[in-house]
């Protein structure tokens, strides 16, 4: 997480005056694998869409996003769509929803390839499409270009969506809940495939998910969003061994476990506050086992500070020590 591929500084996003992302600072180096987690509504997809320049026109965005050394032309849709189809790829949750049922997979792939390389010939595009399908382990890839989406399983369609995201040889892939709609075995296969492809291509990945098990298997780093704030940025190994932020600890404790049978599943009490509704203190304070009712937590918003391990934590009680800037 040392930066140079993606550098996000003070990114804030509001919808209709409600701030749903608040001063996000985040860096990614080439080949990094970052898991982005948080409860529903915490702002994960908004962050992914902001990087892709895909937020709706009504979103008000401030801050900067630099990619491969240059500021992303966020307001310039034409310039952004070239980057999106090219150096930044995108995979989202619902493979069925990503394909028009009346077009063949080959046509979908052609569209993605031509977006990244407008002058490519039909023949070269078809060869490239077949190679990309083979890369995501679709058998008889050339012949299957003529099939329609309904002729593929959900797992295969998700792999084809990954293939189309690879059309522009992206340096960064943003995958928003890519395996949520899939059964456990198919999910494992898609993750294994993504793992192999990301390693072979040296491609950085931001994996947005609710599933900390998926993060544990796939990612090196973990960013935790709460109510539009980045509250923890650490390695997955350290987060799993010793989660410093009480919210991260709560998310880990709430994971269903096969190796123990508690009387009931653990949850984090309370609910996520509405976007923009948190007061001046820590947004997590009302739900926090450590800080509920503690004056500083209730009244002062914690900054994202670096601790001795180099992790960054926004918590008054988690032993954060130095300014965030020192660790970047
Ligand atoms: N187009 C929009 N207009 C208004 N509010 C929006 C819009 N998109 C997102 N929001 C709000 O922004 C907040 C963050 O939403 P977002 O979809 O980023 O959350 P998320 O963490 O991805 O949730 P989930 O896990 O359910 O996908 C929510 O309060 C949501 O209602
Ligand atoms: Mg989302």
């Amino acid at each position: 997480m040392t930066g140079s591929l993606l550098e996000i500084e003070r990114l804030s996003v509001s919808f209709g005056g409600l701030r749903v992302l608040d001063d996000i600072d985040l860096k990614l180096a080439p080949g990094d694998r970052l898991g982005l987690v948080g409860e529903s509504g915490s702002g994960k997809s908004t962050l992914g869409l902001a990087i892709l320049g895909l937020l709706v026109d009504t979103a008000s965005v401030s801050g900067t996003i630099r990619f491969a050394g240059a500021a992303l032309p966020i307001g310039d849709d034409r310039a952004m769509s070239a980057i999106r189809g090219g150096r930044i790829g995108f995979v989202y949750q619902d493979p069925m929803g990503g394909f028009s049922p009346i077009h063949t997979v080959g046509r979908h792939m052609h569209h993605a390839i031509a977006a990244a390389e407008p002058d490519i010939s039909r023949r070269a595009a078809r060869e490239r499409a077949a190679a990309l399908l083979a890369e995501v382990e679709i058998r008889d890839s050339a012949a299957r270009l003529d099939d329609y989406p309904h002729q593929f399983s959900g797992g295969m369609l998700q792999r084809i969506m990954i293939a189309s995201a690879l059309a522009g040889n992206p340096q960064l892939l943003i995958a928003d809940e890519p395996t949520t709609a899939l059964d456990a075995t198919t999910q494992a296969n898609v993750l294994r495939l993504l793992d192999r492809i990301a390693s072979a291509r040296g491609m950085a990945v931001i994996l947005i998910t609710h599933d900390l098990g998926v993060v544990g298997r796939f990612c090196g780093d973990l960013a935790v969003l709460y109510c539009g704030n980045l509250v923890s940025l650490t390695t997955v190994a350290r987060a799993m061994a010793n989660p410093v932020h009480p919210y991260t600890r709560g998310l880990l404790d709430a994971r269903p476990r096969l190796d123990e049978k508690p009387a009931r599943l653990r949850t984090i009490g309370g609910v996520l506050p509405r976007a923009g509704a948190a007061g001046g203190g820590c947004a997590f304070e009302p739900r926090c086992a450590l800080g509920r009712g503690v004056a500083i937590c209730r009244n002062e918003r914690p900054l994202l500070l670096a601790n001795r391990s180099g992790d960054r934590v926004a918590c008054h009680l988690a032993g954060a020590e130095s300014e965030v800037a020192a660790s970047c």
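The longest strand covers residues 18-28. Residues 180 and 225 are 19 Å apart (CA to CA).
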